[in-house]
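Quick entry, no commentary yet.
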Amino acid sequence: MTIAFFLDRDGTLNVEKGYIRKVADLELIPGVAQAVRQLNDAGILAILTTNQTGAARGFYDLDHIHALNDRLKSLLHQEANAYLDAVFYCPHLAKGTVEPFAVACQCRKPETGMILQAQQAYPHIDLARSYVLGDKASDVAFGRAAGCKSVLLKTGYGQKVLAGQYQSLDIQPDFVFDDMPQAVATILKDGALTSHAGMS
């Protein structure tokens, strides 16, 4: 069986800047490329799972989302020769304004559609030993619904989530870390982490 780290994008891997209209504005959070490389070297799947409603809102088209993801992958490679094993994104939003993206779906987090897609690509993923990393309450709920361990990061919106100022943290994360590099380093160092240990 294989362990996977399901990684949010904005606020987890790259700096949270809202809806990124210029591809060149996407920049990595310091240390994340090296952290992804650690996952690569450990034989752990690094899988991007990200809600991207810009298309449904009419801010940009799918090509722009692909370009942003391509820049992310390029920066990971440039900084640490790191790579993502798979990329999944959800462009849908039920209250969106652009067809065919203005629909209710099963892939928008906290729904588990993107993890189900990952399981189709990698049937041997052990969800119970895998982790979901993100900066929003919806990421925590996403991880719990899929049967993974959930990690809330303080980057992006994480601090506001913890302070009760953004989204409602109805489900408590298994772990809270300052950022993705700290999370990866701690989890890889102590594979016996169970719940709330190592919280900062």
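second:
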Amino acid sequence: MPVPSRWESLRRQFSADGYVALPGLTSPAVLAKLGEEARQLEADAVRRDFRMECMADSPRHMTTLGGHRIADASPLITGLYEDRELMRLLSSLLGETVVPVHDPVERHVLNVLHRPGDTHGAHTDDYPLALVLFLEAPPHIADGGLLEYHPGREDLNALDAPGARRAHHRPGDGYLLRSDRTAHRVTPLGRPGLRRAVFNFAYTTPDRQGATTSSASLLYD
């Protein structure tokens, strides 16, 4: 975790960009435990191949597992999601009180890209914050699986406009995204043998507990 002395600079960056990288967020020991947990959970995950109508028909080619099924199988992930120190850090970065999402489907999910062309197409999220923890990631920028986002833009076509950015992450890294106000997507995997596996933790503020779209139910139910 970032040390307290860095919180203010990270908060300013997050406020300006809607994104902040958290390299080395998980230690090698924790990463190994999360990876083992993810492999067990992936056995129950569901393949998704469709276009999300409520997100401008953007594609979904990925394997997913929703939070309700993770909660039934993994006290480890549920406990990490609800960690008070983690939420205290997120509150510092957002500048508001951060709380867990009540929706059991969307609160913590597993997303796996594992075939050439797999992608999590353009979207915004129902809740303000997405904390993404990388378990596996393509080793090179040219391999795809990059986060693509446009600071300050909610409209999905902004991802094809000047100012859009791309970010590469490694296993053990994380990032925080102002995901309800920042158009974002994951670029397609470029070749066989690549994998991108992440836990996505959704958080909100006390006055924001209602989903605004049907996207989560379509992807994770």
